[in-house]
Design brief:
InterPro entries: CRAL-TRIO_dom, CRAL-TRIO_dom_sf, PI/PC_transfer
Number of domains: 2
Number of strands: 5
CATH topology of the largest domain: Phosphatidylinositol Transfer Protein Sec14p
Number of helices: 10
CATH class of the largest domain: Alpha Beta
Strand order of the largest sheet: 1-2-3-4-5
Largest sheet: 5 strands, mixed
Organism: Alexandrium andersonii
Structural class: alpha/beta
Order of helices and strands: HHHHHEEHHEHEHHE
Protein name: CRAL-TRIO domain-containing protein
Strand content: 5-15%
């Protein structure tokens, strides 16, 4: 980790980590995430440099557009996206809760447009990152990764149509943003109140999911007791 930090500082022409929010890339937990996600020092360094460049250009432009977004669109997104960070886990990291069964992704996109919808979630990632950074700064001397989060996804009341549109957006975010610029951000995901067809689909997909990824999911059907593990 120390060698990777030194190499990143040298590559960026710095003698010490910056004081702005990009400081998170130089923290031990973040460096560990890239090492685990890429598997080698060289690949992790290349990915970190690419993410830093992205954060200073594309990411910054997305956040600027969010600030300029029409107030009506902002209010619609806040009102009809039943999710957010509530409380913290035992490490002090914010926990993300999502009421997937109450979210009408297709309807929101119809009203605000797909670009606004996706910008909203990139902005949420940034705001979560600030909260995770604050938690990590308190734990910088420890060996625990503090930039990965616990996710709780409640599927109660979800329909096939609503679920399909939501999954499509999650896949897009994962493939285009999370995979390259926010690796290993999930510690564990609790998926609760799963309908029978979700459980069937999960069984079919499991052989194609990497073991490391599969270990991060906890699946509970309707009526199952999840509170003890959560």
């Amino acid at each position: 980790v120390a060698r990777l930090r030194a190499a990143l500082l040298e590559a960026e022409g710095l003698t010490s980590p910056p004081e702005d929010w990009t400081r998170s890339y130089f923290l031990k937990p973040s460096l560990l995430r890239y090492l685990r996600g890429r598997g080698s020092h060289e690949l992790a360094l290349a990915a970190l440099q690419a993410s830093l460049a992205w954060s200073k250009t594309t990411f910054t432009e997305i956040l600027r557009k969010v600030e300029q977004e029409h107030p009506v669109h902002k209010n619609l997104m806040r009102k009809y996206t039943p999710e957010g960070t509530f409380g913290v886990d035992k490490r002090g990291v914010p926990v993300n809760y999502m009421r997937m069964g109450l979210r009408d992704t297709a309807g929101i996109i119809r009203e605000v447009g797909s670009d606004t919808y996706l910008r909203f979630y990139v902005d949420k990632i940034q705001r979560d990152g600030v909260a995770f950074l604050a938690a990590s700064l308190k734990k910088e001397g420890c060996n625990t990764t503090m930039l990965d989060s616990v996710f709780v996804l409640d599927l109660e009341g979800i329909s096939w149509n609503r679920g399909s549109s939501t999954v499509e957006c999650i896949i897009w975010l994962s493939d285009n943003i999370l995979k390259d610029h926010f690796p290993e951000v999930t510690q564990v995901s609790f998926i609760l109140n799963c309908p029978w067809y979700f459980s069937m689909g999960w069984t079919l997909l499991q052989p194609f999911i990497p073991a490391r990824t599969k270990e991060k999911f906890r699946i509970y059907g309707v009526g199952d007791n999840f509170l003890d593990e959560l």
